[in-house]
Amino acid sequence: MISRGKEEAELVVGGNRIGTKGCFIEPTVFLNPKPDAEIYRNEVFGPVVVVKTFDTEEEVIEAANDTEYGLMAGVFTKDINRALRVSARIDSGVVGVNCVSMMHIQAPFGGKKASGIGREFGEYALRAFTEPKTILIK
């Protein structure tokens, strides 16, 4: 995936394998991938970030929702009104404002689309991981 990423986006830093054992790569940053780039369209589990620049807020929302995944999104801005407006329109289970990995044990966490089933944490987890049963006795 990294080698194809180098063909489909600008490699800013990293992208090299670390050592000869295992599957380890340097922290890697790609910039402005092609719209159909694998590195942009698929989930990457590793120290890889893909940065895409936009001209308008509408472009950001359209790109954020143009995916089969929806676990977590991040909105980075100094404008809280913009953060709330954009967050409300992103089709994701969680939206972090100026963060992407902060969670709270009482807040439900889970994805939409192809990114998860149900919710973890809080009372939502009880519903997701249990099955109610009725027992009638006469």
UniProtKB/TrEMBL annotation:
Its EC number is 1.2.1.3. It holds the Pfam family Aldedh. It comes from the Eukaryota. Residues 4-135 form the Aldehyde dehydrogenase domain. It catalyses: an aldehyde + NAD(+) + H2O = a carboxylate + NADH + 2 H(+). GO terms for molecular function: aldehyde dehydrogenase (NAD+) activity. Belongs to the aldehyde dehydrogenase family. This is aldehyde dehydrogenase (NAD(+)). It comes from Trichoderma harzianum. The lineage of its organism: Eukaryota, Fungi, Dikarya, Ascomycota, Pezizomycotina.
